[in-house]
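Batch manifest, entry 17 of 40.
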Amino acid sequence: GELVTGGFSAVYDVLRTLEERGRVRRGLFVSGVGATQFALPPALDLLRSLKAAPDDPEVLLLAASDPANPYGTILKWPEEPAPAAGEATSRRTPTRTVGARVVLVDGRPGAWIGRGGRQLATWLPEAEPDRSRTGRAVAAQLARISLEGEGREGGIAITEIDGTPGADHPLAPFLIEAGFIRSSVGFARSRRGHSGPGAA
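Output type: structure tokens
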């Protein structure tokens, strides 16, 4: 309605007529949007089918600057959790810079990966099984990125997760499960799936 002269009220009567004829439906379909919404019946069927999460997560790795990534433009990056009492936070703020990537899990951001893969910002749900589902999906994408790695050896070395080295981070067990090796500076995984010479 914003691009129509007269706004939403100029097309409301037409939409109401279409509703009376059964061509569109009125309701509250999308939260955070104006109260009166109209949708085509097939669109509603699709929305209803997406209500329950699929058995396997739908994971998408995008360049953070990709127009298909709505975060940082149309949508704000999710809020970072408040630090515990007496705990400082030095979490990197996600940006839509060249070289940075974002992992979307079931349409929600699971992680932002800084250029070079050294820094991560994560958004793991609080409750299970969503926390494990997202953690595993993010770790699997990071393992795939290690196969692309730059240079002769390739791989990836994560030195910062949400502003910390990450050893006690909730993502740590999922990284280890995906073949990452914990080190004094973070987590590493080579192109071959281990941290380097001598690793099994």
